[in-house]
Design brief:
The complex is a heterodimer of chains A (343) and B (325). Chain A is mainly α and 343 residues long. Chain A has helices at 13-33, 42-50, 57-91, 103-116, 120-124, 127-145, 155-180, 186-192, 200-227, 231-236, 241-263, 269-281, 285-310, 318-342. Chain A is globular. Chain B has 13 helices and no strands. The longest helix of chain B is centred in the N-terminal third of the chain and has 33 residues, at 47-79. Chain B is globular. Chain B starts with a helix and ends with a helix. Classes of the chains: A mainly alpha (343), B mainly alpha (325). Chains A and B meet through helix 7, helix 8 and helix 14 of A and helix 6, helix 7 and helix 13 of B.
């Protein structure tokens, strides 16, 4: 008698991740060409990739203006999405994300204080260090005020504490910007997050740190898989909970700091993408980390392209689009979460 | 409990001190004797500054603070939820979104319509909240979570609209954070009549709200129509919050903090709570506007930012102390 093996008809998750790569390339190409004062075509991108022609105006525009912006969108999106994934994994809370817990708002506040020169010695420090400290400080505050150090963790309490701190940092950023810059138009730019003024210097800042953070997230993926079983069972299986918490927090703060230093607090990417990725891939963190990185990059590239088209000859910050989308998503998740708590 | 009278008198003195400071401080400093001379003996040196600029601003700030505080008191009484307030439940956010949308769609509309638009927005957002959270209405933290998410959505929509259709920056700041900047006598009719009508309503239902504290069943058996009472109190609260939004935008956290402070001072009966709450709201708002101006003159911050400095830490304190998870 032979045992009939079940035939797997579903597409393997690895192939689904692979399928995201061409989508990313198309989104990247669109981000390079669409909504321009010049008549840019995908053909220009292809010829540019083959041979750069300095005399070709379209080549110049794409290489010097569009390319840094698209690269920054790719890496910022990936960083925010993976940061959200690691936060959700560590807290086992589907609503956790850098923008809901106030971590990006903390980084943005540090960024604003540094860039407006309100406190002189802060402005002298390197930007990434400042945003890193801001994000870290916000993370520590949420951790203790939200009661993450106690067991059992109450999920709604953490979120309410995070939202309140987020609001506080937001107000402080507004105050700092108004005090430093009397005409106050900067307020919008600082609080929504934009990729409009990105240069190659910014790209050089964000790429290495994002790659480092992604590597850390990949290294964490197996412990996060164990943590999904619960803290006690994880310790029974030999996982070090404390180690995961420390390293995970470090990865999150690093990724958020890198993203905010370049693009400001782009909202809710870290909340939305992990949920989409789970729907596509499942719950294995080893696959979720690369999937989230790809999906985050795609989301931000598409959102930036759409935002550019909102008021076409003028540029609009990408943050307003992701925040509007993400706040609706947050409402949906919050409602589902409270209904689940009801049982 | 008869502590409310001495408490109210003390609070009134505090309010007067802040009011005098508020009137005296500015680009032109007016000393206390000069203030007295101008107000009582009609000396004309500072008359224009005082009556034209600082006095209306002071009155508006005090009335808005009082309205928000009373609104918070009523909401907390009805849903028996220490974390509730018009701004956390998204009512002020919905009202300001409605006003922003209105002023973009219908530019140059008369300011008379603004309170009604705000009211419509406030009621719509309350309806949304009650519909979305209908299974968890008796769970404080869950209701607050849905309300917070709703506020986030409204705030995002306001950001979106203001970026696409830029208004003048100071009016944008009013709708983003709430500010008493540039308010003058013409704004007073937008809020004063509402308070004049709604404070007596609140006083009228105060006794029944005390009964509601005993629980729905006890209140019913004592002769209260619970459903109708809830409706009246919520409508009053939303109307107060929307009226304050129509004057100076969504001021955060006053409606949360003032009722808590009032309960700490005079206990839990609603009738004595009302005057204490009104005074505390006015003090909070006047002092917030004052500190917003004296922090780094001549630049002034929106008052809503200063109330957030006080209110957001207080909210975090409340949830760390809250026991009924």
């Amino acid at each position: 008698m032979t045992l009939a093996l079940p035939v797997r008809r579903t597409v393997s998750p690895l192939w689904r991740i692979g399928a995201l790569v061409p989508v990313l390339l198309v989104a990247f190409g669109l981000a390079l060409t669409s909504h321009s004062q010049f008549d840019l075509r995908l053909r220009d991108v292809v010829t540019l990739a083959v041979a750069f022609d300095p005399a070709n105006l379209n080549h110049q525009v794409i290489a010097s203006l569009r390319l840094p912006r698209a690269l920054a969108a790719t890496f910022v999106g990936a960083a925010l999405a993976v940061a959200g994934l690691v936060m959700q994994g560590m807290t086992r809370n589907p609503l956790a994300s850098p923008s809901v817990f106030g971590v990006s708002a903390g980084a943005a506040l540090a960024f604003a204080v540094s860039a407006t020169g309100l406190i002189a010695w802060v402005a002298a420090l390197p930007l990434l260090l400042v945003t890193f400290c801001g994000a870290g400080l916000a993370g520590v505050l949420v951790f203790f005020l939200g009661g993450l150090h106690r067991t059992p963790i109450h999920p709604v309490r953490v979120i309410l504490a995070g939202v309140a701190l987020n609001f506080l940092f937001l107000s402080m950023t507004r105050g700092a910007v108004i005090l430093a810059d009397e005409n106050a138009y900067g307020v919008f730019h600082w609080l929504t997050g934009s990729l409009g003024n990105v240069t190659f210097d910014d790209v050089q800042l964000v790429v290495p740190w994002t790659l480092l953070g992604l590597a850390g997230a990949l290294w964490l993926s197996q412990p996060l898989n164990l943590l999904r079983l619960g803290e006690e069972r994880m310790q029974n299986l030999g996982g070090g909970i404390r180690q995961v918490r420390w390293l995970g927090s470090l990865v999150v703060v690093l990724l958020v700091a890198a993203a905010v230093s370049v693009a400001g607090p782009i909202g809710f990417v870290g909340l939305m993408v992990p949920h989409i990725a789970r729907a596509l891939i499942g719950t294995d963190y080893r696959l979720l980390v690369p999937a989230c990185a790809l999906l985050g990059a795609i989301l931000l590239l598409v959102a930036d392209t759409l935002a550019r088209g909102l008021r076409f000859p003028n540029d609009s910050p990408v943050g307003i689009l992701t925040t509007l989308l993400g706040a609706g998503f947050f409402l949906f998740l919050a409602r589902r979460k409270t209904l689940e708590a009801m049982g | 409990m008869t502590r409310w009278l001495p408490t109210s008198v003390t609070l009134l003195m505090v309010l007067l001190v802040f009011a005098a400071w508020h009137l005296g401080f500015g680009a032109v400093k007016i000393s206390l004797p000069e203030l007295w001379q101008t107000l009582v003996h009609g000396q004309s040196d500072y008359e224009f500054i005082l009556y034209g600029y600082r006095m209306p601003r002071l009155f508006i700030a005090a009335l808005v603070g009082a309205a928000l505080a009373l609104s918070g008191l009523l909401v907390q009484g009805v849903v028996r939820n220490p974390l509730a307030s018009p701004d956390i439940l998204g009512v002020t956010g919905g009202a300001s979104l409605a006003v922003v949308g209105f002023s973009i769609v219908w530019t140059g509309a008369s300011v008379v319509w603004v309170p009604f638009v705000a009211l419509a927005g406030g009621f719509a957002s309350l309806g949304c909240l009650l519909w979305l959270a209908r299974p968890v209405l008796n769970q404080s933290a869950s209701l607050a979570l849905v309300g917070v998410a709703l506020s986030a959505l409204f705030a995002a929509a306001i950001d979106f609209l203001l970026t696409l259709y830029p208004l003048e920056i100071n009016s944008s700041l009013i709708w983003l954070t709430g500010s008493v900047w540039g308010r003058n006598w013409s704004h007073l009719p937008l809020i004063a009549p509402w308070l004049a009508v709604l404070i007596p309503v609140a006083a009228f239902i105060a006794y029944r709200l005390d009964l509601l504290d005993l629980g729905d069943e006890a209140a019913t058996s004592l002769g209260t129509r619970v459903g109708r009472l809830r409706l009246v109190a919520l409508v009053t609260a939303v109307a107060l919050a929307s009226a304050s939004v129509s004057v100076c935008g969504a001021i955060s956290f006053v409606g949360l903090v003032a009722p808590h402070m009032a309960r700490f001072l005079v206990g839990h009966r609603h009738l004595p709570l009302i005057p204490v709450c009104l005074l505390l709201g006015a003090i909070l708002m006047v002092s917030a506007d004052l500190f917003a101006r004296i922090l780094m003159p001549p630049i002034e911050l929106p008052a809503g930012i200063v109330t957030a400095f006080i209110g957001a830490p207080y909210f975090v304190f409340l949830i760390t102390r809250y026991k009924h998870w």
